[in-house]
Amino acid sequence: MSQANRERALQLIERKGLTRPRDLETYGITRAQLSRLVDEGLVLRESRGVYVAAQHALTAEHALAQVAKRVPNAVFCLLTALRFHGLTTQSPAEVWIALPEKARRPRLDYPRLRVARFSGEALSEGVEEHRVEGVTIRVYSAAKTVADCFKYRNKIGVDVAVEALRDFTRKHRGGATDLARFARICRVTRVMQPYLDAIA
User: Fold this and answer.
1) Cis peptide before 72, with omega less than 30 degrees from 0?
2) pLDDT tens digit string along 160-197?
3) Which of 34, 71, 171, 192 has the least C-beta neighbours within 10 A?
4) DSSP class of residue 104?
5) Claim to verify: residue 74 and residue 122 sit in the same structural domain
6) Do both 161 and 68 map to the same domain?
7) Are residues 47 and 114 in the same domain?
8) How does pLDDT run across 14-28, given as a tens digit for each residue?
């Protein structure tokens, strides 16, 4: 690989953040060239099929960018979405993703995944897109995540859901309408109401 080609490949990989071999092939960078850059220590293999420039600056959301690259249809939910929106003191060991009922469970060596099955409006509504390390990630909005936490309170703990609700009402003073809409979609309006009354 010529010096000019090496520099062009590295610049592209740096710009993309996390990348896959097929993303690079569209720019004329072959798997053999990518392999050479890995051997030279200029590019790192993050996980199966995901590569990053050696001097890439990692962010707190690095694991989310990794998962989004490998599982593009996933939506980050529950504890992971709470963490993303700053609505919890929890630091989950796994990355929580929502997938449709019949979607195949992704096989990732890293990071560890927790899959929650969503359907209908509970799956499709409240999805936001953000850019993390050059990768588009899909995450449920803060209001949707709070409603989800009440729906899945048996999995994550009612104390976590209540903490999220308290943090949400403090941070998003005008968010009551959104919260009511997602509580309706998730069918948890009656469950949430006593906690809302207690906070108000």
Assistant:
1) no
2) 999 999 999 999 888 888 999 999 999 999 999 998 88
3) 171
4) P
5) yes
6) yes
7) no
8) 877 778 888 888 888
